[in-house]
Amino acid sequence: MSQQESRHRLAIYPGSFDPVTNGHLDIALRGARLFDELIIAVYAFPIKNLLFSVDERVALWQEVLANEGLNNVRVEKYTGLTIEYARAIGAQAIIKGLRSPNDFDAEFQQGLMNRKLAPDIETVCFLTNLDQLFVSSSLIKEVASLGGDVADMLPASVAQALLNKQSETRK
């Protein structure tokens, strides 16, 4: 076996994951099949309106993954540049999910910047499943806040956590 063949293939799947959707889970499962190890990298301080704290988002992922029985996936929180985090842990790839041309444009630009900063780390893009095409965490939070049923777009534990969080914020 050559040195390249014996190399441990580590990828990260970064995001804010506020909350984790079935689309996120699908990308993670597909990434776990391609890499020896996958780290779900939960970004602590995105420039977004967050509903869940970083520790809650990590815990939600851990609960969802426990139901999948994957032994090559773990969840970590991080801060700073994603590419620097990837480099610091020795990742060879960054996994991204694409739902739309807008996603492609943003990920293309970010991927090129990452390639400039760290040419040895690849960006690997997965196309979403058609049934997840319109799903985004932001849209799910908005629909849920207005009383819409989003349970079939989320893992069961996340759907329950979202309901609990929504009722807490209404108090």
From TrEMBL:
Its EC number is 2.7.7.3. GO terms for molecular function: ATP binding; pantetheine-phosphate adenylyltransferase activity. Substrate binds at S16, K48, T82, K96. The keyword rRNA processing does not apply. The record marks H24 as: Transition state stabilizer. One of its GO terms (biological process) is coenzyme A biosynthetic process. ATP binds at S16, F17, H24, G97, L98, R99, E107, Q132, L133, F134, V135, S136, S137, S138. Gene3D superfamilies: HUPs. Residues 12-142 form the Cytidyltransferase-like domain. Its cofactor is Mg(2+). It catalyses: (R)-4'-phosphopantetheine + ATP + H(+) = 3'-dephospho-CoA + diphosphate. Pathway: Cofactor biosynthesis; coenzyme A biosynthesis; CoA from (R)-pantothenate: step 4/5. Keywords: ATP-binding, Coenzyme A biosynthesis, Cytoplasm, Magnesium, Nucleotide-binding, Nucleotidyltransferase, Transferase. It is found in: Cytoplasm. It comes from the Bacteria. Its main location: cytoplasm. One of its GO terms (cellular component) is cytoplasm. PANTHER family: PHOSPHOPANTETHEINE ADENYLYLTRANSFERASE. HAMAP family: PPAT_bact. Reversibly transfers an adenylyl group from ATP to 4'-phosphopantetheine, yielding dephospho-CoA (dPCoA) and pyrophosphate. Homohexamer. Belongs to the bacterial CoaD family. This is Phosphopantetheine adenylyltransferase. It comes from Dictyobacter alpinus.
